[in-house]
Amino acid sequence: MDVDDSAPRGGGEPPRIRRLEESVVNRIAAGEVIQRPSSAVKELVENSIDAGASTVSVAVKDGGLKLIQVSDDGHGIRFEDLPILCERHTTSKLSAYEDLQTIKSMGFRGEALASMTYVGHVTVTTITEGQLHGYRVSYRDGVMENDPKPCAAVKGTQVMVENLFYNMAARRKTLQNSNDDYPKIVDFISRFAVHHINVNFSCRKHGANRADVHSASTSSRLDAIRNVYGVSVVRDLMEIEVSDENAVDGIFTMDGFISNANYVAKKTTMILFINDRLVDCTSLKRAIEFVYSAILPQASKPFIYMSINLPREHVDVNIHPTKKEVSLLNQEHIIETIKDAIEEKLMNSNTTRIFQTQTVNSSALAQANTQKEKGTDVSTATGAKSQKIPVSQMVRTDPLDPSGRLHTYWHGQSSNLEKKSDLVSVRNVVRSRRNPKDAGDLSSRHELLTEIDSNLHPGLLDIVKNCTYVGVADEVFALIQHNTRLYLVNVINVSKELMYQQALCRFGNFNAIQLSEPAPLRELLTMALKDDESMRDENDKEKLEIAEVNTEILKENAEMINEYFSIHIDQGGNLTRLPVVLDQYTPDMDRLPEFILTLGNDVTWDVEKECFRTAAAAIGNFYALHPPILPNPSGNGIQLYKKNKDQMASGEHADNDLTSTAPTEEDDVDQELLAEAEATWAQREWTIQHVLFPSMRLFLKPPKSMATDGTFVQVASLEKLYKIFERC
Question: Which intervals of the chain are annotated as region Disordered (predicted)?
Fold first, then answer.
């Protein structure tokens, strides 16, 4: 019988204990800290936030295995610190063990960058404030591969990790699907964007024009959630606050947003920050899900965002290799308090529920009843799939449908009421003759679309389809590059035409933006008339009469504009819904009164084709990317935000104010208004780049007039520039 001599038996000698080589130790530790590409992204983003960055950009290739690139505009890294930057346990976050008790930064061990150099190729480019140039250096196994090289750089730091896990075959095999980790990375960035509302985050696949996550800094947490997760999530959220500061054994505060009983999702979304640190807490998540299980249907899960703040000495952050978990003092008490607060909030808010309903097909129901009376098996007669009933065999089953009434087809004498042939009746008749389920099958609408096609400028279409976005030039123009030419594009004109065309293309098939509160038409119209320059000579009584007339006009045509353009006006004359003309875009609601006045005044209601044209034009003008109402705070514009109320109210300032330097003391500026303006202008710039121009490439058919009216202006040509350089 064979015996394995290498294994000790009985009184045999035990194996020797050996000291592992440092490279082996470091690689084992690296595999524990950097478990997946998403772990590396999380560590790098946390470093950027610790560096005081206001902008963090992430680019990923093949799920992070080929490339991870994280750029920020933080304070950068000192030149003299670069040699030890990627050594293990080198950090600027703490100097003594006692510092862990009051640590504020997210990183503290000094292991993340070092670990990345042991499982990937790391290149760091950085510049600190006041330097004339930056430095770029590559690292391998914790040390520099060469001396730092001077290079051009923008403020902050860029860390590039290539070929992650190139030397860990087993780990790389478990991540064979290159796209497995990208959703996790997007999820991490989304969570950071919701919590750190003063930081601009973006995340995209390498080489992609459009970011999968892009959040502009904002003063509202709800706006941040809306930017990242969408309007459908925000409308079902409730704010919640919990404070237990008087308790001796559990001092903490919690604020956040939780979904109400109307929210429907297949998976729980829980965003938890404890002392500004993104963590998981399984016991808290289970406790919250238990509360919701008594309220939500079995298949639905909640959305939770929570920010918990405790004394730093009550939190042990050093219990997990990737810092994804923390240990709390009196954790059971904290969880129980939060659970009770959520339960109370849900019980107090659970007075109304919204259920999705499906309209019963009355003609199919009638057919089923007829066959049932004849003794025919309905399931056999209709088959597995219900066949479409020919138009010629359809009968009117809705008494409110005018297309089925006899007087619609009777051309004899009739009363004044019978002679009334408004646009709604005409539209219903046309629809019923063609396809009652297709509101877009109208000849007038097709004629307008044909006009757009026939008026197309082929040269501009090529520019739009194949251009590269460069950036915003000023409040009106943006720069694009096409082949070797540089163009100025009038953002207002382009967006207005795009919205007009989309209003006709999505005709009768809009998604809807639900207003948080119904907006009375009379109030909107009165506001618009007060701001209208042409109405300044009219007195208030005449303005109220005009508002009343326009309100009645819109109420009379409410059914038509709701069905065709998803602009819903209830019986009380309140605006409740607006159309989604472009996905991920909401119009500037400051211009809503002007839009309602335009609908009432400028739409030709009695001629079908002109009605569609003018209504679409009004929508196009409302949804166009006009400059925000608040002045641009960049440059000398900050002078308008001084706390001199008289100056701000009149909007006037002396010429010498424009040339003076910006105030250096924060007390001189209305910080709240300034923050709102900065967020608004930043959101507009993001929308131009990530919503307008991608949509232009897909949908815009530029008319010939844009070639001559200054919408597209060529400002430079590479060939001509070369000629100038040759002369020089």
Answer: 645-668
Tens digit of each residue's pLDDT (9 = 90 or more) over 80-118: 989 888 887 777 655 566 555 555 565 555 677 888 888
Could you tell me if residue 105 is inside a domain? yes
Tell me if residue 124 falls in helix, strand or coil.
strand
Domain count, the chain: 2
Claim to verify: residue 63 and residue 185 sit in the same structural domain:
yes
Q: What is the helix (H) or strand (E) element at residue 414, kind and residue range?
A: none
Are 211 and 258 in a shared domain? Answer: no
DSSP E strands: which ranges in 556-702?
568-569, 574-580
Instruction: Answer yes or no: do 189 and 285 share one domain.
Output: no
Q: What is the rounded CA–CA span in Å between residue 122 and residue 69?
A: 10
The mean of the pLDDT values for the chain is 77
Residue 518, pLDDT score: 87
CA of 595: how far to CAs of 385, 561, 578, in Å?
45, 14, 11
Q: Is residue 279 part of a domain?
A: yes
User: Cβ of 671: how many Cβ atoms within 10 Å?
Assistant: 12
In this structure, are 149 and 290 located in the same domain?
no
User: What values do phi and psi take at 720, rounded to 5?
Assistant: -70, -35
pTM (predicted TM-score) = 0.49
What the block records as the tokens of 193 is 């964007």
In the chain, the amino acid numbered 435 is N
Q: pLDDT digits over 56-85, tens only? A: 999 999 888 899 999 999 989 999 989 888
The residue range of the domain holding 71 is: 22-215
Name the domain boundary from 305, 323, 347: 347
